[in-house]
Amino acid sequence: MSHIAVLEKDSPSNDEDKKISHLGVAIITPDGTYPGEDEYRRVSGQEKIGAILKLAADALKITNTTDWIAKAGDRQLDPTRTFAEEKLSCVVDIEYHKHEGGGGA
Fold first, then answer.
1. Contact status, residue 24 vs residue 5, Cβ threshold 8 Å
2. What's the whole-model pTM score?
3. For the residues of 24-90, what is the DSSP string, one character each?
4. Burial of 39 by CB count in 10 Å (0-12 exposed, 13-18 middle, 19+ buried)?
5. Which residue of 3, 24, 74, 105 could cross-link 91, Cys pair, CB 3.0 to 4.6 Å?
6. Domain boundaries, the chain
7. Residue 7 has pLDDT above 60, yes or no
8. Across residues 26-52, what is the average pLDDT?
9. Which CATH number is 19-98 given?
10. Positive or negative, the Cα torsion across 59, 62, 67, 71?
11. How far is it, in rounded angstroms, from Cα 56 to Cα 50?
């Protein structure tokens, strides 16, 4: 899925936050995209990935994500880590969904 980078304005921050790099994030789920189809949410690199995943689940009214995974490209992300710790920058599309099982016959 391709997006046009339209960043959502974040709340006012103090001088410490201005030193931290920011990135644009879109969370893509089976139930929709957060913050919107052609938008990215501006977040701090020091923000925990799980916090943004929770915002997306709440906004999209997804009630149970206990067995879901977050992926950026082919790499699974650890929601307890920050965007910086996961070495994510600029504009990031995160796919958030149930772990895909391998079928078989």
1. yes
2. 0.76
3. EEEEEETTEEES-TT-EEEEETTSBHHHHHHHHHHHTT----TTEEEEETTEEE-TTSBTTTTT--S
4. middle
5. 24
6. 19-98
7. no
8. 95
9. 3.10.20.90
10. negative
11. 10
